Amino acid sequence: MKKDTPDIPTHLVEDPSSLFTKSGPFLRKFSLDELPQLFNILKGQMTFIGPRPALYNQEDLKDLRTECGVHTLTPGVTGWAQVNGRDELSIPNKVKMDVYYLKNKSVWLDIKILFLTLLKVLKADGVKREN
């Protein structure tokens, strides 16, 4: 993102592409912007699989997750919502996916999510493409 980007959630920005640096779309398309989160995993603040952490200013997402009990899960680098829509999901649908994960969490579901994540990243599925 460019310097002086407004401090609001991305889904509330009218034209997100106007805020990208030259390398931003490439980094986002292939999820390379997620690599620093590996440090959060090493520190025990995140896991590989779980609901994506909400931004500090996404009160609507945090409130809905708390209401549904999703806030009890450790945030993850990827999750069920990411392999079922990624940026294209509305906040309520994202929380529905997080609730599904909460109720169905298992090693097999985690393996499925990891596999689907690799496919989605390679194909850049579900990433908003702003012109």
Report on this model:
With 131 residues, the protein is mainly α. The protein has one domain (15-123). It has 6 helices and 2 strands. The chain has helices spanning 24-29, 37-42, 59-68, 80-83, 91-104, 107-123; strands at 47-49, 76-78. It has a two-stranded parallel ribbon. Helix 3 links the parallel strand 1 (47-49) and strand 2. Helix 3 runs parallel beside helix 5 (91-104). The radius of gyration is 15 Å and the shape is globular. The mean pLDDT is 85.
Rough outline: globular
Number of domains: 1
Strand order of the largest sheet: 1-2
Secondary-structure class: mainly alpha
**Helix run count:** 6
Counting DSSP E segments of at least 2 residues, the number of strands comes to 2
Mean pLDDT: 85
The sequence of SSEs as H and E is: HHEHEHHH
Please bin the fraction of helical residues: 40-55%
Q: How widely separated are the two ends?
A: 15 Å
Chart the SSEs and their pairings.
Blueprint lengths: L23 H6 L7 H6 L4 E3 L9 H10 L7 E3 L1 H4 L7 H14 L2 H17 L8
Parallel strand pairs: 1-2
Helix pairs in contact: 3-5
List the main descriptive attributes of the protein structure presented here.
mainly alpha; about 45% helix; two-stranded parallel ribbon; about 130 residues
Outline of this structure?
This protein has helices at residues 24-29, 37-42, 59-68, 80-83, 91-104, 107-123, and strands at 47-49, 76-78. The protein has 131 residues and is mainly α.
